[in-house]
Design a protein that fits this description.
The protein is of the alpha/beta class and 215 residues long. The protein contains 5 helices and 11 strands; from the N terminus they run H-E-E-H-E-E-E-H-E-E-H-E-E-E-E-H.
Length: 215
Amino acid sequence: MLFNTEWYIDQMKRKAYESEPIPMTLPNSKYKDGTNNIIYLIERIDNFVNLKQVVDFIANEDPRTKFNPQPGMSLDYIPTKKFRLPVEAEKVISNGTVKEKDAQLMVPSIDWTISRNTLMKSAMMTLDILATGNWDRPVYFVAGGNEGALNLEDYFQDEGFAYRLVPIKTPGRSFLNYGRIDTDILYDNLMNKFRYGRMKNRMYILIFITSGPCL
């Protein structure tokens, strides 16, 4: 939800400690407080559209890139619900996004549909990150089944406590399980990187009794 706020987006555009800024191209005028809190998806293009072109369309100030819900009101919008994120095979293999042994599983582009009629500002900025990042840095989602996942669950790769976006399509296995599992990375994270503690400490369970019904 913080990604719906102007100050947080501005902060993500700045270098923090050893982390370079998150790549985004939309200017402050497109996400400042009160602007594009919700952005509409109006299908005027039926084909899959390159995600970079979608972001450029949002950034464009040409009146032809706006829609007018009422006289005197001009709003940004997204002219499609079908998106395409191209994949550079050599890049995603060389930077470890996809292992060489899985190269034959890759798709040439991630083509997907967002069925909603509106997106929140945070989702708009996530589209910007995906388009601008161009697979240079890993992108992780903490969960699927919500607007923030952008209907990309078929391209999720479980690596522990987060799902990495990869150009390998794995249709949904169940309501709670998304995408594929990289067992090698998952095992290494669980056994060698995750930190466990307080196993021997006494734990107390607090039970709250209310006068009303509990859900």
